[in-house]
Amino acid sequence: MSNRYETLFTPFKIGNCEIRNRIVIPAMEGTNIIENMFVTKYNEKAHDYYIERAKNNVGLFIPGMIPVYSMMMGKWLHKNKKAFWQADPLIREIHHNGAKIFFQLGAGFAGRNYTLPAQMLKVAGSPVLKKLTNPLLHLNEMMVAPDDGLPMVWAPQFSTRALTVEEIHAYVEGYAKSAKLCKEIGVDGVEVHAVHEGYLMDQFTLPYMNHRTDEYGGSFENRYRFAVEVVKAIKKECGNDYPVMLRYSVTSKAIDFKVGAVPGEEFTEIGRDLAESEKAAKYLQDAGYDALNCDNGTYDSWYWAHPPVYMPLNCNLEEAEHISRFVDIPIIVAGRMQPDAAEKSIQEGKIDAVAIGRQMLCDGKYITKLKEGREEDIRPCISCHNACLPVAYFKNSGAVMDTADAATQGHCALNPRAFEEKKYKLVKAKFPKKIAVIGGGIAGMQAAILLSERGHQVDLYEKTDALGGVFIAAAAPSFKEKDKELLAWYRRKLEASSVSVHLNTEVHSLKDLSADKYVIAVGAKPRKLPVPGFEKGIEAIEYLNGIKEPGQKVAVIGGGLTGCEIAYDLALKGREPMIVEMTDDLVKAVGICAANSECLRDLVRFHKIPVYLESTLKEIRDGSILISTVNGDQEIACDSVILSVGYTPDQSLYRPNTDTKKGGKTDGDTSIHVLGDAQAVGNLKKAIWGAYDLGVRL
């Protein structure tokens, strides 16, 4: 074992439950063992995922939250014992491999943060449709909170109703009886999804959401009564020695409804500040909770609990270390946690364990590789949320998710095998082929690696002198350190493979190559706008790759993901960016996690970057641009213009098949397969998953 992380691999206890090391996999959306949204059932896909990680030294598993009440069907979790007992073999096998498991119990997604999909907005706004769909949707139970009239996070035009005292008592009973079922099937403890992230129970604790005048509002004790009653009820039902952990947000990081505080921002906290948190942590410990699993944030500052690439590494560590001074129970911390920081903090006695979630989706052998000193072999999580949490939000949209994304939520964009182990099991090819891969971007590299592993003879052709394609530019900003690590990881994997790599080799025609199969992964080309002076602009990729340097005052045309990232990067460099966007909101795209987009929007606000929405570029002039706005044409002075207006697939090597059912095949030629942006411009998930689909099939 490597001595570098020696403390990480020492045991610790939550209550009377000893855990073999200090590494916890926290609950994440889509990682449930028992599902209770539409129907209470055992998740069959969970088995291989959890066992692989149990065999690879995970200390404690906390699978995704199980709602104690199904808001979709109006059923209580504890009334369906069958699903629990279906999980019994998995739990036994987890124990056999030396790991422990807690189930996370919560009030579901009730409260003002209930995920109102775009399709449900009409139902929510119609008393008639509400009544007609009530047997299934139970919107009155979903849109509850401490108070009447709180704006819904995903659809602020709708508001909540106040939970009754009787309903609160029913929830308390639901937690206790569900915990008893957990104990009966051998689950080592439970985690209460409670004073955390602005969910239902947390809303009771926060003064800006709770103005009740009964025993559940007003004073500190009343606001925390719900959480206290739950742990006392569980202990009464299961015994005082049964471990109960609390998912806990140390501070809310909330400035206002739908406005969060970014790192380094001075602000007035309207939620739980550090002073109240000191008191609350001790109060909750004394009530019976055996550990605090900590981060920060609410749904008004969602990116603290689900930190995207723009958030600092170890972003919640400081607050968790602080709160540990006020309690005697274990403190666990989550939020882009890195092993060096975790090792140091545990060694110094400031925290007790670390929660590593999305990185464990990305690489199931992460802990074993750490233990063995093989850090360079770890596939790094880049906090993209492309597959693990792809629910998008933009102005007046509700919660938006692509159908394909919805089916694979809780998976990993970089590691399609997570929860799909059987589908993507690699076996040696019965009839090895000679395969030419054209394009050395992420899609091309991933396909080449997989095809080589299956025994094919693979040649990869890249027209430039470096592997990575457009991802080189994507990884360029200073806040993309994990993207740079991923690029380096792919290059190392390719170097260690049997793939023959041909750099500085541009393929003009497939006829110039000799292969059984051709994989075209040449990416996309920047889109051109038919406006005067367009040639004076700097393409986004030219700026990101350092080919062209902008001036001080820079107009960024396009307020999508790349455009906003460029504007943020410019602000960090001391430049004066502005953003011109044709739609009514920034980052208005399906597939981009709301945590990522909300963080970017708040960073734009914090850096005081001017934004022109519903505006289009009409002309690039010398020293200015002319744009069309809702209020007419406007000339804006600027030194440079960066164009981030999208890409179109590079189809120079093939003719696309108009029959969409043919997948990546082209023009009836079954020897040709197209991947990534060359097929259709998308994100990393599309590129890598497409490569995996092809890799296991050829």
Short description:
By secondary structure, the protein is of the alpha/beta class. Helices cover about 30% and strands about 20% of the residues. β34 and β35 form a beta hairpin.
Structure commentary:
The protein is α/β, with parallel strands linked by helices and 698 residues long. Mean pLDDT is 93; it is low at 660-665. Helices cover 30% and strands 18% of the residues. The protein contains 23 helices and 35 strands. It has an eight-stranded parallel β-barrel, surrounded by four helices. Strands 22-21-20-23-35-34 form a six-stranded mixed β-sheet, with helices on one face. A five-stranded parallel β-sheet has the order 25-32-26-27-28. The radius of gyration is 26 Å and the shape is globular. The two termini are 38 Å apart. The chain folds into three domains: 7-407, Aldolase class I (TIM Barrel, Alpha-Beta Barrel), CATH 3.20.20; 434-525 and 649-697, NAD(P)-binding Rossmann-like Domain (Rossmann fold); 529-645, FAD/NAD(P)-binding domain (3-Layer(bba) Sandwich), CATH 3.50.50.
